[in-house]
């Protein structure tokens, strides 16, 4: 009998439950907040402040900052050709730091003389290779022209044609400096001086290079080159500020 008397109470409670919790009580939290220009300005300023901490803070090491180049170093006695892979490390204001790894080869067999006695020499036809890495800093003078300087370290090795006689392989420092020109972020030309110690060759070389930026091969993204504050970025990663709406209609 007791459970039959409780049935009307349960039915009455179920009918009164929706009225106690109207739908507006749940939907209030799901509605978007009204637009507040002051809060948006504060958020943009905070994002711009994070940008000033440098490229490493925002993971600038990516395929968009990479380049593949074809290099040549030469002097009056020797010439080397090769490939170079470059990667931007830091791009912040006047700092434009880049790292490169390279591999060069001599496109011909050079006649080399090995001393076998006080007055006797043997002549060999030598193949020679150079590999290494370097770090360089670019100094932009305009949107497309600038100077660079850098240093690195590498290893040179080779072989003699027709014999198993070992060659003079060695570690060598690399020092370089010169000028560069960039065509619309796509093709980069570099030229200057490079110091590399190579057996049977002078240590001073003229350096020439042409490279293509991976950024030019990636699909265009209009939102990628914009700062959180609404301004655009130029070739060196510097922001071109966008005027505020209240300044335009003042």
Plain-language structure description:
This protein has 250 residues and is of the alpha+beta class. It has helices spanning 2-20, 23-27, 37-51, 245-248, and strands at 66-74, 79-92, 95-105, 110-115, 121-140, 145-160, 170-183, 187-196, 204-213, 232-233, 239-240. A hairpin with a 2-residue loop joins strand 2 (79-92) and strand 3.
Supply the key terms.
250 residues, alpha+beta, 8-stranded antiparallel β-barrel, two-stranded antiparallel sheet, 11 strands, 17% helix
What is the H-and-E element order? HHHEEEEEEEEEEEH
Mean pLDDT: 77
The poorly predicted ranges are 49-59, 222-230
Could you say which structural class the secondary elements and strand pairing correspond to?
alpha+beta
Number of helices: 4
Question: Helical amount among residues, as a percent range?
Answer: 10-25%
For the sheet with most strands, the description reads: 8 strands, antiparallel, barrel
Strand content: over 45%
Instruction: Please give the radius of gyration in angstroms.
Output: 33 Å
Could you tell me how far the N terminus lies from the C terminus, measured between alpha carbons in angstroms? Answer: 81 Å
Q: What assembly state would you assign to the polypeptide chains in this entry?
A: single chain
Shape: elongated
Question: Major sheet: order of its strands?
Answer: 1-2-3-5-6-7-8-9
Total DSSP E strands? 11
